[in-house]
Prior knowledge:
There is one protein chain. The chain is of the alpha/beta class and 271 residues long. It has helices at residues 20-29, 44-54, 67-80, 114-124, 146-156, 169-179, 195-204, 223-230, 242-255, and strands at residues 11-16, 36-41, 58-62, 85-90, 106-109, 138-142, 162-166, 183-187, 213-218, 235-237. Strand 8, helix 7 (195-204) and strand 9 (213-218) form a beta-alpha-beta unit. It is rod-shaped, with a radius of gyration of 30 Å. The two termini are 38 Å apart.
Amino acid sequence: MVAEAPMKDVKKILVASLDPEVTAYLLNFVPLLGSFEVALAASPMETMAKANAFEPVLLICDVSPSIQAYTDTLVQIRTSHPKLSVVGIIPEDTSPDILRAAKPDETLAKPINSSQLSKVVKALLPTVQKETKPEYARMLVADDESGVSEILADLFKPLGIEVHLAADGQEAVDTFKEKICNLAILDLTMPILKGTEVAKILEASENPPKPKFVVIVTAALGERINELKRRGYPIVPKPMDLEVLEKCVLDACEKYHLALHTPPVDQNIDG
């Protein structure tokens, strides 16, 4: 069974009684602006009915066929749909005052210039919010003990977090840049670059942006740990309490709106 695609939130633009050529232009132009579509109405009564049924975001109404009837309709629509934007189209050499009671947002006179109409439509339509892709949790695990790295990979991959491994400080920096990691667990004592040195490099990074959350794991004690705490790094002592570390990371994912893969990442992702 094929799953149905989710319905888009399509907003309606109601076009009432416009010339066929202008209507055809709007039918082609409006969908290019985003999740909008045109509904047509051919009479004042149909205009009122579709305004009530569709609750459009914009009404473009040509009052030329029956000025009084369409003006009265616009007044009623304005009363019942105060947030609706309205463009009134009037006959050539007609004063805009004829639509004063309807309070249109814009009044255009025939013959209609398509460029001008396009600018008015774009100005009155609500901004279409673009779909944004979620930022997934991508974790750098840097530890020269391969057994520790594998334990952490086995812990976090089933939770839906990408895990990229590094065995020394320089590899950690390179992996961070290549994989654009937004989380990091760093061992304090590693070859080439220490965990504190790696943390400084990551924190100063602009491209890619610095990680949102860095944890230092260490077996060391004393003033070095106090200094790391003063610098704001969460410290997890070795041997690690995996439940504490898991909660720490998941709390960070929630705080910084990092998405988890569903289904979880079960393949062997590494540096």
